[in-house]
Design the sequence.
């Protein structure tokens, strides 16, 4: 079998409920630029599953390399806690994430890839391989909140405690692969602002912001989302997040905020198990799956219906 076939077999294994096996097979996608990032150029061996079982008794220092997009880094940072039971863990990640990663259980230090030349560690792991290295099943995932937050008094003044405060995001970054198939027409989300007991906030930045109606009562938060720390504080004041498959969705799940994610028919690996409207990766996420390529009507109509139902009970 070639790398593509093995990678595809990994998707099937994940769909069948075999997390560790599926991730190990999907690692073959690294050879064809389908999965993760290129190997680190670091003077330390890769920690494999066999080496993990052997070396976890001895401990040492481990470099945990957060890879791919911001959403992937947020999704996989949870595994630092598993490794920290046996190793001192140095996290390599995008510098913009340092403020929200620094207090995660098990993080001993944070650096960027620019700093790895002088990094002295015993092993390293790629973050998207972590479940396979650790030998985890879906039931072992830390699916409750794992990034700390607190209600910020400054931002809490924006919310209306007598209404359902909803943050919406309809486009991800154009820099990320496959964003075109994850984007949906946002008009039905905009219409939620017309419900009597809803206060709607836009969490959109950059691409797609031009679609926000100028004369609506939707509060545009883009100017306040200059850092991930500020974005986290804004999101923490929401009762509900509704998002496309992007970093905002993963952050909502990592914070434990009720988050509804609208996923394309060909979906990312964190959403494929189990079937239905839940994911083993986050307890607080509900999925609205696209039924047919190019047609978002069923998912968006369901969103509208569910918000109306929740609004009546608010």
Sequence:
């Amino acid at each position: 079998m070639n790398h593509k076939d093995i990678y595809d077999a990994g998707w099937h294994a994940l769909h069948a409920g075999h997390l560790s096996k599926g991730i190990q097979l999907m690692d073959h996608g690294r050879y064809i630029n389908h999965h993760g990032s290129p190997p680190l150029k670091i003077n330390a061996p890769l920690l494999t599953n066999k080496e993990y079982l052997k070396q976890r008794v001895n401990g040492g220092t481990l470099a945990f390399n957060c890879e791919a997009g911001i959403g992937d880094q947020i999704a996989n940072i949870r595994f630092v806690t598993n490794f920290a039971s046996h190793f001192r863990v140095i996290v390599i990640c995008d510098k913009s994430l340092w403020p929200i990663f620094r207090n995660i259980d098990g993080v001993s230090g944070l650096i960027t890839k620019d700093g790895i030349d002088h990094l002295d560690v015993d092993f390293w792991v790629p973050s998207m391989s972590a479940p396979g290295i650790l030998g985890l099943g879906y039931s072992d995932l830390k699916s409750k909140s794992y990034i700390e937050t607190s209600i910020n008094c400054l931002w809490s003044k924006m919310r209306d405690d007598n209404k359902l405060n909803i943050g919406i995001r309809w486009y991800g970054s154009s820099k990320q692969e496959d964003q075109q198939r994850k984007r949906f027409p946002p008009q039905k989300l905009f219409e939620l602002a017309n419900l009597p007991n809803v206060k709607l906030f836009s969490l959109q930045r950059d691409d797609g912001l031009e679609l926000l109606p100028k004369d609506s009562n939707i509060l545009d938060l883009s100017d306040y989302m200059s850092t991930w720390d500020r974005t986290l504080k804004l999101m923490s004041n929401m009762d509900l997040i509704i998002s496309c498959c992007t970093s905002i969705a993963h952050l909502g799940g990592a914070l434990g905020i009720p988050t509804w994610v609208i996923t394309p028919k060909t979906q990312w690996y964190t959403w494929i198990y189990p079937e239905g409207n839940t994911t083993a990766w986050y307890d607080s996420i509900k999925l609205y799956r696209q039924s047919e390529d190019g047609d978002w009507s069923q998912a968006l109509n369901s969103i509208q219906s569910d918000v109306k139902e929740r609004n009546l009970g608010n």
The two ends are 54 Å apart (CA to CA). The longest strand covers residues 164-169.
